[in-house]
Amino acid sequence: MLVSAKEMLNKARDGHYAVGQFNINNLEWTKCILQTAEELKAPVILGVSEGAGKYMCGYDTVVGMVKGMIKCLNITVPVALHLDHGTFEGAKACINAGFSSIMFDGSHYPIDENLKLTTALVNTCDILGISLEAEVGAIGGEEDGVVGMGECADPAECKMIADLGVTMLAAGIGNIHGKYPENWPGLRFDVLENIKKEVGDMPLVLHGGTGIPEEMVKKAINLGVAKVNVNTECQIAFSAATRKYIEEGKDLVGKGFDPRKVLAPGCEAIKATVKEKMEIFGCIGKA
Ligand code: 13P
């Protein structure tokens, strides 16, 4: 069954570990992430960007696919289906389609507008039992054409958004989407500490989980991060394994061209990446 992310994140915050959000792009991605979570008895959040939602033929298709898989694969661990970096319109569409968790990313609006639009979603999500993630301080890098500048969030603004009653808060602390540049100075733990002081118990979300050194991720979790988002790293692992299969000419041997065979090494690579991340996040066995 799909569940809100609220309970799993509150437990993670109290237990000093983080739940992984892994973004899905297609059937293989979804299946690999669900199977790994079940195998490791870890709660999991499936992230869907608006671009990926469109690619997968719309939110109704995504909900149908995920629900079907949970049933067919006998998935017993808590699974939240979460809109990633949603617009206000996207958030409404996902609520209607049956997502169990929503992110409304109002970080590119002036804070008053972000507060106004986030407020409009708080009550609806509350009534429907859907978890809601808000964002302050745009995450850097580029994701699905949305380019953030990697600002650090203002702790006072974080408090204003947290006080609205959202479930979790993404606050920029120098993190960026995609690969980190060589000269990246690292996460701003001083900013994270100040945010935590302002927002109290609110579970914090660390976006841009790809390529952040393990020790930094663990320190962020100790300081109040309860959800870490990973997308690019699964994509890199998938494409490297697929390239190897093709370059070794395996598709030219027997029925090696069968799509299920072509995609199998990439799937194994996604599973290994998800497992490695879950080990770092400390969520294995927490379902
Ligand atoms: P990465 O692609 O850098 O792992 O970031 C994922 C993310 O934050 C999704 O919101």
Explain this structure:
The protein is globular and about 60 Å long. Helix 5 (88-97) packs parallel to helix 6 and helix 7 runs parallel beside helix 8. Strand 1, helix 2 (27-40) and strand 2 form a beta-alpha-beta unit. It has helices spanning 6-15, 27-40, 50-55, 59-72, 88-97, 111-128, 155-162, 189-199, 214-222, 232-247, 259-281; strands at 19-23, 44-49, 79-86, 101-104, 131-136, 141-143, 146-148, 168-171, 204-206, 225-230. Helix content is 48%, strand content 17%. The strands form two sheets. It has an eight-stranded parallel β-barrel, surrounded by nine helices. Strands 6-7 form a two-stranded antiparallel sheet. By secondary structure, it is α/β, with parallel strands linked by helices. It starts with 5 loop residues before the first helix and ends in a 6-residue tail after the last helix. The chain has a single domain, classed as Aldolase class I (TIM Barrel, Alpha-Beta Barrel), CATH 3.20.20. The protein is built from eleven helices and ten strands. The structure holds 1,3-dihydroxyacetonephosphate. 1,3-dihydroxyacetonephosphate (13P) binds next to strand 3, strand 10 and helix 10.
